[in-house]
Amino acid sequence: MSTARVLLFDSGMGGLTVARAVRHELPFAQLVYAADNAAFPFGAWPEDALVRRILAVMAELVDRVHPDLVVIACNTASTIALAQLRDRFKVPFVGTVPAIKPAAAQTKSGIVGVLATPGTVRREYTHGLIQSFAANCRVLLHGAPGLAEMAERKLKGTAVDLDELRAEISPVFVEEQGRRTDIVVLGCTHYPLLSDELARVEPWVVRYIDPAPAIARRVADVLSGSVTCSPSGRVPPHNSVLLTSDRTAAADALPAYARMGFHLPEFLALAAP
Ligand code: DGL
């Protein structure tokens, strides 16, 4: 059996929160992290153009990396392109979609916040999740315009502006008739990167749901049996990062990738259309 090679895909550094969980679950899998950073942020793209972009970039990535499994570590991409990706490519895909189902099961107050990108908030897929799993809850679905960028800036070394963060999250904190929001779904993989700051600005304590550990368990399940994720005397795997920009455009992000264990950058230099 060969050692598992997992490709993780996002628009930027948000998918590193998923990569961290996959590494924890499968320490001996080889992880390749790919960011379509030339097209960041996905949340601002029109749907048709974004699907075309993701399919084109994925064709290039699958061809280079030959992964055993691809994790779409991005809600904005998964909620629009997962079905087409599964149709187009033979490799198995694991997606990331807002954790509305567990949030609805866990809320005590019945008021659930969902923070996501403006793109994810517009998706039929997201509204379908609410209808199917949270029909009995009050769901405050908020497309936060600047949160993903704030998380990127933090990893590149800029301190988070707490007033700006407070304004971005305030629409999901609601108090009515003696009940208030008690669960907030982090519906974008960038947002767990801001967890320390979120705890500092939240108007009251809520539980945040980060889907990364559940995604990592799903990855392990899908891979089990077909490839090995155990040490079996091998040298530890290299964890490389593929970026769609050129080196100059990515220079300020490289130290953050290295800190998260992705030391070997390669540049595809695919300009956004
Ligand atoms: N990390 C992404 C997500 O989970 C998207 C951020 C963006 O490119 O807008 O939705």
Question: Secondary-structure blueprint of this entry?
Answer:
Blueprint: E1 5-10, H1 16-25, E2 30-35, H2 47-65, E3 69-72, H3 75-88, E4 93-94, H4 100-106, E5 111-116, H5 118-122, H6 124-133, E6 138-143, H7 147-155, H8 162-169, E7 175-176, E8 179-180, E9 183-186, H9 195-201, E10 207-209, H10 212-223, E11 240-243, H11 247-250, H12 254-259, E12 264-267
Parallel strand pairs: 1-2, 1-3, 2-11, 3-4, 5-6, 5-9, 9-10, 11-12
Antiparallel strand pairs: 7-8
Helix pairs in contact: 1-10, 2-3, 4-6, 8-9
The structure holds D-glutamic acid (DGL).
D-glutamic acid (DGL) binds near residues 10, 14, 41, 42 and 148.
Keywords:
Rossmann fold; 41% helix; 273 residues; four-stranded parallel sheet; alpha/beta; 2 domains; 12 strands
Structure write-up:
- The radius of gyration is 18 Å and the shape is globular.
- The protein has twelve helices and twelve strands.
- The longest helix is centred in the first third of the chain and has 19 residues, at 47-65.
- The strands form three sheets. It has a six-stranded parallel sheet, with helices on both faces.
- It folds into two domains: 5-96 and 213-267, Rossmann fold; 100-210, 3-Layer(aba) Sandwich (Rossmann fold).
- The chain has helices at 16-25, 47-65, 75-88, 100-106, 118-122, 124-133, 147-155, 162-169, 195-201, 212-223, 247-250, 254-259; strands spanning 5-10, 30-35, 69-72, 93-94, 111-116, 138-143, 175-176, 179-180, 183-186, 207-209, 240-243, 264-267.
- It has 273 residues and is an alpha/beta fold.
- Bound molecules: D-glutamic acid (DGL).
